[in-house]
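User: tokens in, sequence out, please.
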């Protein structure tokens, strides 16, 4: 089972919590998602060899989860999903690939020092 499959499984295990109307702040749901799903999906990331296809798949996976959390927007013509740019603005530009690169640098600085 790949990391993104495990992350997807973790998301669906927590789906009721993340899509619940009882948690009104979307940012709280994003924090829960980051602390559970991203943790599972990026486990042992220091040892990965990232190819362009892996990066694209991780970005698609992240946007899929964010679209489920933030949901569609009602406009005059009907319901519209948020664009990739809107999703990045909502989460403050947090990027899973940047997180992976930061984890790798953190691992290497331990060996340098």
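Assistant: Sequence out:
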């Amino acid at each position: 089972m790949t990391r993104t499959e495990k992350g997807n499984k973790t998301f669906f295990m927590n789906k009721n919590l993340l899509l619940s109307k009882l948690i009104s702040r979307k940012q709280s749901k994003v924090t829960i998602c980051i602390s559970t799903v991203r943790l599972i999906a990026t486990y042992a990331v220091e040892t990965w060899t990232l190819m362009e296809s892996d990066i694209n798949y991780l970005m698609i996976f992240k946007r899929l989860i964010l679209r489920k959390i933030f949901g569609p927007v009602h406009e005059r013509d009907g319901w519209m999903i948020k664009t990739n740019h809107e999703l990045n603005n909502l989460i403050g530009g947090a990027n899973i690939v940047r997180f992976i690169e930061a984890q790798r640098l953190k691992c290497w600085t331990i060996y340098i020092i």
